[in-house]
């Protein structure tokens, strides 16, 4: 996990419950300065909730416990004002479906200068100049003419760029991107991923990339966490996870994705469905769907443990080495080039 | 743009015409105006003479065409009762009505909208439930019941406010209050649901995530969006500034248009009734048109291309 | 083998009004598309927003009327919308689209909805309908106890299975699927894709699979047509088109799919936005974003031409026509 002082953000035992139903069961996560961390999982695993909770963006009736430290300072459980100080200026977040995430009745220039005024005290002409620079940085053509337009006059991809510009306005240390490319066309997805990589290189800010798209995550991130049913089940570097996934769920995810290269094969799905948080199975939450599960898996929940190669894994019967290496050697080869 | 407005104006004209025609026909078919005006003991020749004098012996469609023609020349007929120009009679009464409806509208806006917005921002709280309860209470009780209730409490039991007439400004308090309670309830409910809908939208979360202070999120981001549906309701309320006081004016003997309408209908004073209805219809139609145009100003998505 | 369904020069034009006060102007959503699907085969149609692929799907079913060209099903022209002949054809062709919750009536049980086509088309007598419904539900992997459930009680994947079961009830010959798995999680996608393939193989159903997700299309389709702004720009077998795409747009599309493990360098990242059908560029619609654009591309619309065995492409550069206009 590294020395505490080098971590930008530390989540410890973060738990979230809605109306008495526990959806996050104690998340421990570190984000180092400038690193790109991927958070993958399917719907309902809690990957978005984790960061919404960390920023205090969940509705009041959600109960959030646990520790969220930003550069050593505890921010969870704070007042609304203390969260407002962190949001945008220290940790910024962009969301899925950019077209509905921008206020339809306000001009986009205003929505950006608003952020500049709060976080950098830039107003009037100075604010506008900086906003134009940001628009340029995110690749909006002809920013001067577009400054006074409304969100509906932009396409989905451009709206996401606008969101990114708004997020950058506060010069945050960390950008949390929650499924930023999911609602976009394929060629635009590629543009936005490209933009995120480039911006990270230019500004040195850390990125948390939340997605169900493993391929996209592997483009942007160095380290990946896999979540299932409100817990982290595996964590490691992108190379480790993608060449030899150890958790059966991670392995299952890779097997279920169709490949665009290679022969047409029958897909290998993960049987069953994601469990309802109200009725989580006893023991390991994945055991009902796991081909490697034994009796012990159904009664005892495996803890998240550190392995010798630096990863973390919550499984007592991980996928064996030979099985892992066999099918994924092609991927490993490409990565090592 | 021209086409848009022209179409709306055409529709407005047709609506007004329909209202006037309806009134025209119904009034003449629901009892002989002459008989009503003159009383049951009048000898038949007098009734007939009356009818001839007022053109009531002509076939219906001739009377109708004559009326339409006269409207276009600005002649709205003459009151059978007072022998004065119907239009003058009606316009004389407008200020009295406005003395009630304008303050009532003011109260509706100043109390109803903030109450609804506050309730939306503090959902499930005691205040929220209280607002909903009072709002439902307000708009379900018919205005005449509310009026009589207020008269009972303030005029009869407490004796601090007068119960009828238009003599002092204090006479206006109870009627205005009666009129506004229903509208306050409606506006509170609508404002609350409009705000709740807006607060659940993704762009509000974005605004919060930017680090905006909560009050700025509400004022700059939420309210402008909630304004659109609220404006519709307010638009209708403005449209009924002239018409909305019929019952209240009758209860409180307030000499406004509403009261004139009631009296004229029971007297079958045709020209006056038609004139009032025409003005009311025109007011409604104009306010609808203004609301339509206002939408375009409030919601930029309606202004320009929405073709994707 | 005669094609099950054949489209020739299909055209579909929408009138779009810009804003409150604008004048309406025509938008060509589908611009002279010709294609054919053989019985038992799967044709994949890929494209981004504005490509017209959903409109094409509806035109193949006769839901959207063609304003130019025609659709022939089993050799006969498509009857006009809502005529008795058109309604009778519904038993042979079905549509599955992205949002299963919207496709299901929330007031009816699953069993009632799966059985509805049986009643509408009077396919089997009433007493046998329940058995057929049970059979269909089992075929798509729904549990018998879910027959009495309502759509909101099922998960997204289960709802889509119910939609598929209903679509199969009348034993259709053709299934048009418009983004059927896009809203589903990866593991459920895999389940549904496998299921569709199995059902297709067992029942000999032809499928038109419309999607923006190239990976899924690669897996399920035999042949693939790539659409851009209402036209087909390339068509080839699923193996060949993703392995060696010829049209610059196809190349960019294939290259934009993030492959786990493959790094970014060497990928083609397309600049600009997917085009707006309301403002169509002259000549080849792709030329503003195309790295290979030449003069001819800006002036002349390229036709779909044979470029190999069973492959066609609509590109002046690929088909070697760049010299034509200079002459």
From TrEMBL, chain A:
Cell compartment(s), UniProt: Cell inner membrane
The cross-references to InterPro entries, in alphabetical order and at most eight, read: AAA+_ATPase, ABC_Ni/Peptide_Import, ABC_transporter-like_ATP-bd, ABC_transporter-like_CS, Oligopep_ABC_C, P-loop_NTPase
Q: Which keywords does the record carry? A: ATP-binding, Cell membrane, Membrane, Nucleotide-binding, Transport
Q: Which domain of life is it from?
A: Bacteria
Q: Which GO terms describe its molecular function?
A: ATP binding; ATP hydrolysis activity
Q: What's the main place this protein lives?
A: membrane
Q: Which NCBIfam families match?
A: oligo_HPY
Family, similarity comment: Belongs to the ABC transporter superfamily.
What this protein is called in its record is: Peptide/nickel transport system ATP-binding protein
Species of origin reads Xaviernesmea oryzae
């Amino acid at each position: 996990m590294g020395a505490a002082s080098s971590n930008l953000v530390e989540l410890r035992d973060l738990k979230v419950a809605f109306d008495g139903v526990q959806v996050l069961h104690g998340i421990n996560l570190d984000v180092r300065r400038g690193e790109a961390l991927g958070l993958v999982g399917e719907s309902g695993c809690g990957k978005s909730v984790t960061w919404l909770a960390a920023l205090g963006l969940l509705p009041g009736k959600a109960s959030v416990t646990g520790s969220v430290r930003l550069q050593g300072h505890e921010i969870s459980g704070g007042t609304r004002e203390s969260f407002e100080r962190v949001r945008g200026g220290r940790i910024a977040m962009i969301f899925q479906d950019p077209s509905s995430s921008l206020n339809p009745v306000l001009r986009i220039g205003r929505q950006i200068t608003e952020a500049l005024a709060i976080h950098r005290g830039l107003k009037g002409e100075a604010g506008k100049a900086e906003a134009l620079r940001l628009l340029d940085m995110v690749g909006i053509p002809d920013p001067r003419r577009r400054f006074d337009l409304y969100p509906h006059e932009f396409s989905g991809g451009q709206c996401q760029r606008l969101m990114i510009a708004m997020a950058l306005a506060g010069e945050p240390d960390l950008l949390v991107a929650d499924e930023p490319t999911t609602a976009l066309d394929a060629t635009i997805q590629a543009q936005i991923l490209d933009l995120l990589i480039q911006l990270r290189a230019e500004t040195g800010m850390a990125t948390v990339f939340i997605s169900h798209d493993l391929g996209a995550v592997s483009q942007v991130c160095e380290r990946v966490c896999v979540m299932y049913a409100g817990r982290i089940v595996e964590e490691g570097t992108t190379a480790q996870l993608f060449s030899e996934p150890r958790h059966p769920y991670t392995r299952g995810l890779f097997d279920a994705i169709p490949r665009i290269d290679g022969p047409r094969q029958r897909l290998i799905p993960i049987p069953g469905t994601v469990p309802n948080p109200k009725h989580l199975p006893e023991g390991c939450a994945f055991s009902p769907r796991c081909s490697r599960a034994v009796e012990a898996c159904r009664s005892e929940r495996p803890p998240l443990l550190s392995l010798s190669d630096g990863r973390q894994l919550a499984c007592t019967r991980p996928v064996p080495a030979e099985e892992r290496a066999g099918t994924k050697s092609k991927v490993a080869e490409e990565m090592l080039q | 743009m021209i086409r848009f407005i022209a179409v709306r104006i055409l529709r407005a004209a047709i609506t007004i015409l329909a209202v006037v025609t309806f009134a025209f026909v119904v009034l003449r078919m629901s009892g002989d105006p002459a008989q009503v005006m003159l009383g049951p003991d009048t000898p038949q020749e007098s009734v007939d003479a009356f009818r001839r004098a007022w053109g009531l012996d002509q076939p219906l469609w001739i009377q109708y065409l004559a009326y339409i023609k006269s409207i276009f020349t600005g002649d709205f007929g003459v009151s059978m009762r007072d022998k004065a120009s119907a239009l003058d009679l009606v316009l004389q009464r407008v200020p009295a009505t406005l003395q009630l409806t304008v303050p009532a509208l003011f109260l509706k806006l100043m109390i109803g909208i903030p109450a609804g917005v506050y309730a939306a921002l503090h959902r499930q709280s005691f205040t929220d439930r209280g607002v909903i309860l009072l709002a439902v209470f307000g708009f379900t009780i018919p205005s005449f019941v509310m009026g009589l209730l207020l008269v009972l409490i303030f005029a009869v039991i407490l004796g601090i406010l007068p119960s009828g007439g238009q003599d002092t400004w204090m006479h206006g308090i109870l009627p205005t209050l009666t009129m506004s309670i229903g509208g306050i309830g409606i506006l509170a409910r609508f404002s609350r649901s409009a705000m709740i809908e807006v607060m659940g939208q993704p762009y509000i979360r974005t605004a919060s995530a930017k680090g905006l202070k909560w009050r700025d999120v509400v004022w700059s981001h939420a309210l402008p969006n909630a304004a659109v549906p609220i404006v519709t309701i307010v638009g209708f309320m403005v449209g009924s500034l002239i018409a909305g006081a019929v019952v209240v004016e009758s209860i409180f003997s307030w000499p406004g248009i509403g009261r004139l309408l009631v009296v004229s209908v029971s007297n079958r004073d045709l020209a006056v009734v038609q004139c009032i209805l025409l003005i009311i219809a025109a007011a409604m139609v104009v306010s609808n048109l203004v609301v339509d145009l206002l939408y375009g100003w409030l919601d930029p998505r309606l202004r320009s291309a929405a073709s994707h | 083998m005669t094609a099950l369904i054949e489209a020739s020069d299909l055209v579909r034009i929408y009138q779009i009004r810009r804003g409150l006060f604008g004048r309406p102007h025509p938008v060509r959503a589908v611009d002279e598309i010709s294609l054919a699907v053989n019985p038992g085969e799967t044709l994949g149609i890929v494209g981004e927003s504005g490509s017209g692929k959903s409109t094409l799907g509806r035109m193949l079913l006769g839901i959207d009327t063609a304003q130019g060209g025609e659709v022939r099903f089993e050799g006969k022209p498509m009857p006009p919308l809502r005529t008795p002949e058109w309604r009778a054809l519904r038993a042979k062709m079905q549509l599955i689209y992205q949002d299963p919750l919207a496709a299901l009536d929330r007031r009816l049980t699953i069993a009632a909805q799966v059985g509805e086509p049986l009643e509408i088309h009077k396919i089997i007598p009433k007493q046998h309908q329940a058995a057929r419904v049970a059979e269909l539900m089992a075929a798509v992997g729904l549990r018998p106890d879910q027959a009495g459930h309502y759509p909101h009680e099922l998960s997204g994947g289960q709802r889509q299975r119910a939609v598929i079961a209903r679509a199969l009830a009348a034993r259709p010959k053709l299934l048009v699927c418009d983004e059927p798995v896009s809203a589903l999680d990866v593991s459920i996608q895999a389940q549904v894709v496998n299921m569709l393939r199995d059902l297709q193989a067992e029942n000999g159903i032809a499928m038109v699979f419309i999607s923006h997700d190239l990976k899924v299309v690669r897996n399920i389709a035999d042949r693939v047509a790539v659409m851009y702004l209402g036209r087909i720009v390339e068509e080839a077998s699923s193996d060949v088109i993703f392995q060696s795409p010829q049209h610059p747009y196809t190349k960019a599309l294939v290259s934009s799919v993030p492959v786990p493990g493959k790094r970014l360098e060497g990928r083609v990242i397309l600049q600009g936005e997917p085009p707006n059908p309301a403002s169509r560029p002259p000549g080849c619609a792709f030329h503003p974003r195309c790295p290979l654009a030449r003069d001819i591309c800006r002036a002349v619309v390229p036709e779909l031409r044979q470029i190999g065995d069973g492959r066609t492409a609509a590109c002046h550069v690929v088909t070697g026509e760049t010299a034509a206009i200079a002459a």
